[in-house]
Model the fold of this input.
Amino acid sequence: MRLIVLWFCVFSAQANILFFDLNNASAEIEAMAKSESFKKQGKAIAILPSHQRLPQKTRTAIIEAKKHLDKVSLKAEECVGGIPPEKKAKCNAVFDDIRAAELKRAQLTGEYRLPEFQSELATLLYFNDRPIKFDTLVISGHHDLGYFRGEITQLEVAELKQLSLSEPELFAGFHTVILLGCSTGTPEMMQAYRDIFTHAKVIVGAEDNAPTRDEARNLKFIRELLQATPLLHKANSPKVAEGIYRGLLRHAWPASLLWNQSHYYAKDESLLLPQKVTLQP
Done:
């Protein structure tokens, strides 16, 4: 799959997309880049970790390393509980294979964590010695209880808070936040995210288990969401915003929406969130 959006593409003066690719989500990135809405708005997508830091060849190797790790880990199921003496040598070999596979994956990713995000952001924000503006942030990765992870790296919601404090101007510019991960859009998580993305009028997440990155319904939802986002920003009332949101549910993607920092919509409920809470680091 050919990625058509990298750092050296032409950035819009005011509105670009920043994509935190924690899980090797090439298909999702390409779905965004090829969407009609994206083309009409003349935006560009910047990806972190960048393709300068992790080239496509390395990302492909990471996918293969993860497949091998999963395959080896299945063998460890025979070694749960008490290990009979006759299986001890075999199980020890399996454990060694798992450690070696995980070490290889870690070496390929270069242990990319929060300091690396901060460093690459600092470089990106003044690409070619001129400030780059972003109005949309997308985070793609597995998610559980405020913790994002993927084949490439991981990022805690508390670390997002740290990023927002170190780059306040960048985070103030995010008017749209798209969270492509399981349970990113529960009422509790939305309250945490709005404390980080204080200027975002549109925050979209998953209220339940989200589709996997390469599923057709996931990619179709992403394209439709990009079409709907400008309409959500133009919506002049909660009723109008809810109507646009309900239209997105036809794609069998468990989307939820936080609109205008207060109005929360999910498949079976709509409510007004209480006053903002502070996420403790």
